[in-house]
Amino acid sequence: MKIPISTLSLSACLLLSACTLGPDHVPPDTIDTTQLRYQDGWQPVPADSWAASGSWWTAFDDEALSQLVEQSLTANQTLAQAEARYRAAEAQWRQSRGARVPELGAGLGATRSGGSDRSTASQYDARLQVGWAPDLWGRVRRTIEADQAGMQASAADLAAVRLALQVAVAESYINLRALDRQQEILRDTLAGYERSASLTRNQYQAGIVARSDVIQAETQLQSLRTDLYDLQAARAREQNALAALLGVAPVQLSLAEQGTLPVVPTLPRSLPATLIARRPDVVAAERQVAAANARIGVARTAWLPDVTLDLWGGVQSGSFSGLFDAPARVWSLGPSLAQTLLDGGQRSAALELAVARHEEQAAFYRQTVIDSLRELEDVLATLQILGEKAEQQAALLQLAEENERVANNRYRAGQVSFLEVVTAQNITLAARRVAVDIHAQRLAATVQLAAIIGGGWDLEDPVIQSVLGE
């Protein structure tokens, strides 16, 4: 007699209690991340390398920045929420693992009954009960697999929130210092404008220049004074935003003005390709694919019967005081089988839902990798272009300062009107302010690079070292 293959498979499952339905997880194929337009030398690294991201902000060699980042990691409430979500995911995983172990319960009861002859009787009983549902079809194993992948995704999400917080603090700090430097430039320029206005007034009183030159000099001076208020208001807002990141009230944070910006870190000519594998959001997306894949197996087990083995034993007595003296011992052992025969298509729909969600997560993972590569190309291009722009801006500033000196000398000699001095001074001021903006943009782009590659480019990173040593 020919035995159907399905019967053989079912028999094997029953004998071994080790069948696991559903496909095993295979990370989705995605685009090649080793080829970059603006940077050579990237290499793939292990998928869990995001965990060794390190203290990337120390590359800026700014003690105040380091202190602010460390403070934010202990008090930020968004980070506290992410930590709680991770603990919840870990608890969910432990809960699902508990389904592999038989359940042990105990009970103590009392009943009182009567008959037609108005007699009554009391019955007391105590019992221990063991229940176990063998994981014949791998439902529990797939559930554990899904919850474990979910926990890993939550851990990566926590790392992503932590990294985003570090980046936000660094960016806010850079903005604050850029505003300080802008104010310093305006105050220095204001002193120069005051000297020019004083010179113009003296020349006007001596009959050398017209009254219009005095008005022009004082107008320029007053305009600069009002610009300072805008910078002060912007600085107050930035400091308040930084306080929120640190988890404190604005009144609790007061940073003294500092007219210097951190130096742009020198990046190595060749960066290992930690950009994709170590990014927490990429790790989280891949783990969500694994969780969705495991839930397909859970959905497929819905067509198979649930088998439960129950064993209980206990004692019975007509009086509570004699319950444990010479009681009647009772026991029970027996399996139970439950199978859904008709559900109106719910199981089919649940399986289709699980497959669709897996496909959705796989597409999301692929798109996350593509977006990561685009972001990396963007920031590498930005850093390269801003570096060249900074050099050109430095040359422009040098020319503007020389032009201002020439214009002032010619004005003192009575060769030009004060309008030429005003024009030269405004060009110099604009060049100085743009130079600060470019420097701040380079710092911000470097911070973004740290975020995009998952938290740093330190060649001493043990993960990077393991790759370079291969």
What's the topology here?
Blueprint lengths: L4 H12 L46 H13 L1 H21 L5 E12 L5 E13 L6 H67 L5 H36 L27 H4 L2 H21 L5 E12 L10 E11 L7 H67 L5 H35 L9 H7 L2
Antiparallel strand pairs: 1-2, 2-3, 3-4
Question: In short, what is this structure?
Answer:
By secondary structure, the chain is of the alpha+beta class. The protein has helices at about 5-15, 65-75, 75-95, 140-205, 210-245, 275, 280-300, 345-410, 420-450, 460-470, and strands at about 105-115, 120-130, 305-315, 330-340.
Largest sheet: 4 strands, antiparallel
According to DSSP, the number of beta strands is: 4
Strand order of the largest sheet: 1-2-3-4
User: In the CATH hierarchy, what is the superfamily of the largest domain?
Assistant: Outer membrane efflux proteins (OEP)
Number of helices: 10
Secondary structural class: alpha+beta
The chain-level mean pLDDT equals: 78
How many independent structural domains? 2
CATH architecture name of the largest domain: Up-down Bundle
- In CATH's first tier, which class of the largest domain applies? Mainly Alpha
Reported by name, the CATH topology of the largest domain is Outer membrane efflux proteins (OEP)
> How much strand?
5-15%
Order of SSEs: HHHEEHHHHEEHHH
Structural Rg: 37 Å
User: Oligomeric state of the chains?
Assistant: single chain
**Uncertain segments:** 1-17, 40-53, 466-470
Shape: elongated
